[in-house]
Amino acid sequence: MDRLLGNIKITVNEKTYIKDPESSDLGKRIVEYSILMIDEIGFENFTFKKLGNQIGSNESSIYRYFESKQKLLMYLSSWYWGWLEYKLVFATNGISDVKEKLTKAIEIVTMTTVKDSVFSHINEILLNNIVINEFSKSYLTKEVDAKNKEGYFSVYKRLVRRLGEMIIDIDETYPYPLSMASTILEGSLHQHFLKEHFASLTDCHKDKQPTKYFVDLVFTRLNSNSHV
Amino acid sequence: MDRLLGNIKITVNEKTYIKDPESSDLGKRIVEYSILMIDEIGFENFTFKKLGNQIGSNESSIYRYFESKQKLLMYLSSWYWGWLEYKLVFATNGISDVKEKLTKAIEIVTMTTVKDSVFSHINEILLNNIVINEFSKSYLTKEVDAKNKEGYFSVYKRLVRRLGEMIIDIDETYPYPLSMASTILEGSLHQHFLKEHFASLTDCHKDKQPTKYFVDLVFTRLNSNSHV
DNA sequence: CAAATATAATAGTATTACTATCATGATACG
DNA sequence: CGTATCATGATAGTAATACTATTATATTTG
Predict the structure, then answer these.
(1) Nearest chain A Cα to B215, which residue?
(2) Pfam families given for it (chains A, B) (predicted)?
(3) Which whole-number Å values give the CA distances from B175 to A146, A208, A215, B103, B106, in the listed order?
(4) Where are the domains of chain A?
(5) Of B136, B145, B221, the CB nearest to A220
(6) Which among A122, A134, A189, B117 is placed 20 to 30 Å from B172, CA to CA?
(7) pLDDT tens sequence across A56-90
(8) In the prediction, which pLDDT does A1 show?
(9) Residue A184 pLDDT exceeds 60
(10) Top-confidence residue, A39 or B208
């Protein structure tokens, strides 16, 4: 999809930032290096001060763009989900066969990012790692409901619902399309994490990726006639 | 199971604590009130100082029992998984029918805790909430591999493997028993979370609990003849 | 060229997650 | 019974965090 995306910009909820990081050079460097740093040292150890040092800028300047590191994480993950949604819609758009369509969709959302540097300052592979390791932390807080009301998770939610609709398109009698959709998304992140850190808790590894596991599980259920 | 557990003690990896909280009155109060507080204000906002105030004790005294709040969270979640494992083994032990056995197992691990105060100072219902909301934070860190090596997750891992074995017992040709087991455990926590905070991303609610969703999904797959 | 704007530098604050030290009160044991 | 040991408490201190506020300087724009 390299060529095609040349003039696309992924839109992110404006509340995640004070000043749009896409609007300046410093902003882009903040995003670029925050991805590198969070991937490297983890979200807990990541601070705006360290980031400032890394990019030869000042802590206080970073605060002009992002209110807090939580909001920056929101920005990054929203960007990721928006980007994934774009890839999903783009790849499944022309497909009329509903099963083929869902298969493609599952492939897109469960696959590890390989290389896709259309957005020069965003390393999608590392961003994928960050989502695997840190995304849960953006909603596992006491502020979820407030954040949710303000729309911080809307892209992610839309993605789950899109998947859910594709599931319904295959079997409108299946009683758990949304749970299945959310299981695919979240479960895939989890399987990727296990692959890296708890290999004894997953059957997924190099040749046997989460994608296959989920495609098998989902289609066995949707092709079955069991109406529970 | 009330009567039967009277003299049972759930064993937790000794590395999680400095001094066994079960060994003293203060220790038990620390555990009891940390559960109440973490549930109420969330792990991020929870501090040993606040806990000290709550129980009329001193911050420094709490540090005699737990090295850090991370370790306390480890202690609490290990206790929870140990307790769940006990319930699982206890409830499935006599069952010879493999399908009935797995059904029972899924029920145990995916169901919300109702009331089970055999351990007077531990509120299992709130602890269940804590596991839903905070457990991921104990492994989504840069220290996972080190912590894992030291055995902090052994009970949880054993639980996943037990489930995995029950799956194999039903269909030894199924290629993803461990992934299915880990999906049940983690996915169930996730569905419970969604129920509370993102109702639009799940089909689970009062009458339609995660248990049913997982039993249906798992057995449709294991009863099928599709060998992928 | 002046005004506005972006960034940098510096300082300061409350809180956190501890560590260290010393005091006190309870208990155990010889 | 007296003393040593141990558990707990009180206080102080530290480095780091997650910011806010203020002022200075450099850059852009009108």
Answers:
(1) A228
(2) TetR_N
(3) 42, 9, 13, 20, 19
(4) 3-223
(5) B221
(6) A189
(7) 999 999 999 999 999 999 999 999 999 999 999 99
(8) 47
(9) yes
(10) A39
Across all strands, nucleotide nearest A66 (CA–C1'): D19
CA of B7 to C1' of C23 (A): 38
**Residue among B45, B129, B203 with most chain A CBs within 10 A, to mutate:** B203
Inter-chain touch A190–B182, beta carbons under 8 Å: yes
Q: Residue for token digits 């996730």?
A: B190
Contacts with B, A 187-206, CB within 8 Å = 187, 190-191, 193-194, 197-198, 200-204
What is the fold of A3-223? Tetracycline Repressor; domain 2 (1.10.357)
Q: For B173-221, give the DSSP string.
A: T-S-HHHHHHHHHHHHHHHHHHHHH-GGG-S-BTTB-HHHHHHHHHHHH
In A93-176, alpha helices (H): 98-110, 124-139, 144-149, 154-170
Residue A216: its pLDDT value, please? Answer: 98
Residue B6: which residues within 8 A CB-CB, separation 6 or more? B118
Beta-carbon pairs below 8 A across chains A and B: 146
Task: Check residue A227 and give left, alpha or beta (phi > 0: left; psi -120 to 50: alpha).
Answer: beta
For B137, the closest chain A residue by CA position comes to A137
Confidence of residue B3 (pLDDT cuts 50, 70, 90): very low
Q: Which nt is closest to the CA of A59, judged by C1'? A: C8
Q: Which residues contact B24 (CB under 8 A, 6 or more apart)?
A: none
> B86 in contact with A at a CB cutoff of 8 Å?
no
